[in-house]
Amino acid sequence: MTAPTKPPQSHSTDAGCDAPLATPLQATVIDWFDENARDLPWRRPEAGPWGVMVSEFMLQQTPVNRVLPVYEQWLTRWPRPADLAKDAPGEAVRAWGRLGYPRRALRLHGAAVAIAERHGGDVPTDHAQLLALPGIGEYTAAAVASFAYGQRHPVLDTNVRRVLARAVTGVQYPPNATTAAERKLARALLPDDEGTAARWAAASMELGALVCTAKNESCHRCPITALCAWQLAGKPEHEGPPRRGQTYAGTDRQVRGKLLAVLRDAHAPVPQAALDRVWHEPVQRARALDGLVSDGLVEPLQGGMYRLPLS
DNA sequence: GAGACGTGGAT
DNA sequence: TATCCAAGTCT
């Protein structure tokens, strides 16, 4: 199991003269990670910052197993940001395949252009510069800075939020939207040492992904079950309003998805008539197509023809 | 801050 | 079959 760079010494608070690098909670999770981390391509040293960044875009709301093959294709085709920047944005959208939320492909292309233009072709190391790139928000900026460059940032994704909600706060699920209290907690739990903080970020995320899952959590395999506030409280069920689930069937999103699928599979401009076949209801169909055009995902041509954007 | 934004596997 | 969920971002 290859995991990111290991600190030179033990994380444990063993008897001795050195100050602990982390408290027992963090040290235990990091030790568990050392033994149980998945060998994912973007965690290998050869992935580099660009590989980490591409993976983070793809993993926004898309499961690891579906990302893996597309990630390999992207890194083979566009091994550096400048390679992607040279290609048409529509090629990024096409190569995105069925990962979903294709605006991410457009934003990743835009980020590559910005990196080529403003950063000499290298993924920036600075959190604020990362945050300024299209498609990079609070989470992704922290993740790239932490995983690619070993920096110390609170990395608060859905996995970490759930782990902290249970282990520390003692509730089954975190709030729907990230709160200031969660940020404060994540900040407080960040180990002082930079490298240890980066490992804690990856480790706590992995624990949420493999053990402390949203449903069917595996507390019997959890390294911190004895410290877990939720466990100690008897694993009370979530109270309050149901966590919002999004409907999909019949929405504009579904229509947009069908329209874009036609354009992805075509390697020449597509006539309006071909797009009309994907959805029976003309008003919604037109609205969805307009939306794709205004989002820059589709380029309208003369004579009612459409294609993925060339620029 | 609520809602839009894709897709497919699991239960 | 219906709902939930997956390393979020943007408006």
UniProtKB/TrEMBL annotation:
SMART domains: ENDO3c (SM00478). Residues 58-210 form the HhH-GPD domain. It catalyses: Hydrolyzes free adenine bases from 7,8-dihydro-8-oxoguanine:adenine mismatched double-stranded DNA, leaving an apurinic site. PROSITE patterns: ENDONUCLEASE_III_2 (PS01155). Keywords: 4Fe-4S, DNA damage, DNA repair, Glycosidase, Hydrolase, Iron, Iron-sulfur, Metal-binding. Pfam families: HHH (PF00633), HhH-GPD (PF00730). It comes from the Bacteria. The keyword Ubl conjugation does not apply. One of its GO terms (molecular function) is oxidized purine DNA binding. Its cofactor is [4Fe-4S] cluster. Its EC number is 3.2.2.31. GO terms for biological process: base-excision repair; mismatch repair. The keyword ATP-binding does not apply. PANTHER family: ADENINE DNA GLYCOSYLASE. Belongs to the Nth/MutY family. This is Adenine DNA glycosylase.
